[in-house]
Amino acid sequence: MFIHWGLYSNPAGVWEGKKITHEYSEWLQASEWIPRSEYRKLAEIFNPVEFDADKWIAEAANAGMKYFLITAKHHDGFCLWPSKFSAYNVVDATPFKRDILGELAAACRKHDIKLGFYYSHWMDWDGTGGDVCLGGEGYPISKKQNPEYVRPTQEEFQNYWEHKSLAQIRELIELYDPWFFWFDSWDTKIKDYVTPAHQDQLIELVHGLSKKCLVNSRINFLEPSEKCDFLSMMDNHFPEAGFSKPWETSGTLNHSWGYHALDYTWKSTEQLLKFLIGNTSLGGNYQLNVGPTGEGKFQPAAIKRLREIGCWMSVNGESIHGTQGSPVEKVPWGRITSRSLPDGNTRLYLHLWEVSPGTAVLIPGLKCKPLAAKVLESGQTTTAEAGQDGIWVSAPRELAGLVLPVIALDLQQ
Ligand code: FHN
Q1: With a 6 A CB cut-off, is 32 part of the ligand 1 pocket?
Q2: pLDDT tens-digit series, residues 53-91
Q3: CB-count exposure of residue 146 (10 Å: 0-12, 13-18, 19+)
Q4: Is the pTM above the cut of 0.85?
Q5: CB contact set of 37 (below 8 Å; sequence gap of 6+)
Q6: Distance from the CA of 253 to the center of ligand 1, in angstroms?
Q7: If we measure between CA atoms, which residue out of 358, 378, 362, 379 comes closest to residue 370?
Q8: Which residue puts its alpha carbon closest to atom 8 of ligand 1?
Q9: Which terminus of the chain has a lower count of CB atoms within 10 Å, N or C?
Q10: Backbone angles phi, psi at 249, to 5 degrees
Q11: Which residues contact 284 (CB under 8 A, 6 or more apart)?
């Protein structure tokens, strides 16, 4: 689970009575060129009395998720923990005064979920020397201008880098012992400030302080360092092939990452599951975003989807967790995931997306001997036969009542 949550979650994509120009609600400040002193007033009304860390993490665990990532600091510079390096934080600047990250860290430990932090390392709109946003392709902001927002000099950026970015990342590791950092870049302007030396310095800092903490590639999406631990695709990007390094796609339930009161473009649960299965079949992960409200609640449409995913996972999770990608090229009828069994044999999970019940599917090119096949959800056994072109597996007529059914097929190796 990915969470975008902050001061922007109260206005929720609406400013001065109008839908903001940028499609992402968390872009409010830049989208509308809001004077810093005015944007900062949102801290005075940030009081999410409904926030319950345990409920959020239980929802993630119930959906079958294994890790949890939250915007410790997004581009606006506001921090969800009591930072020594910025008083613009939830404890010092809001009426809520609770250490949100601390509460989430405890809930993650309780539910055995791995915690990670999104940290806007390069961009910071609060005037502390991080880069500002002047819009760009795919990131439309209003035509208004505001002379307050000027790109920092190299010296200003360097000061920000050392005394805010690096200092806060060190602080987050020391306070909460995270499993990973998710740094963000998507615009070529990153190269004006984050050099290969900056990248390496940051990765070495993280790896030096924590043996377990991983770093993603969007630290500089243009030229990620070899020392990054995993690749992050661009937003909602689902590749056609896998990679040699571990990788994941972060995606949204609707369109905006932060809660947006006027974003009605919800993806169906079936579509979300297909993204999950598709990435898994290529050896990748899927990190699904929720934008909680300013009160601290998940929207009903988000909960509905998470619980439906959880239901599907409760009977088919074996085909996802701890599996590897497909041993064969993409098949026209669905997707395949796989696992090595303790006895040396292999289990394939056939995700039947475009299959008429009562017909059969071909796994092309496989020469090994089929041992057994059964439907994961119902336990119904089915037949599998080796033919000239590969292995044919029957899709029982009873699959008609199942959503995105999976057949587990054991093969002799
Ligand atoms: O600008 C951000 C955006 O607000 C959001 O955090 C996404 C998540 O991947 N990353 C950037 C855009 O790609």
Answers
A1: no
A2: 999 999 999 999 999 999 999 999 999 999 999 999 999
A3: middle
A4: yes
A5: none
A6: 14
A7: 362
A8: 235
A9: C
A10: -115, 135
A11: 239, 242, 243, 246, 247, 248, 249, 325
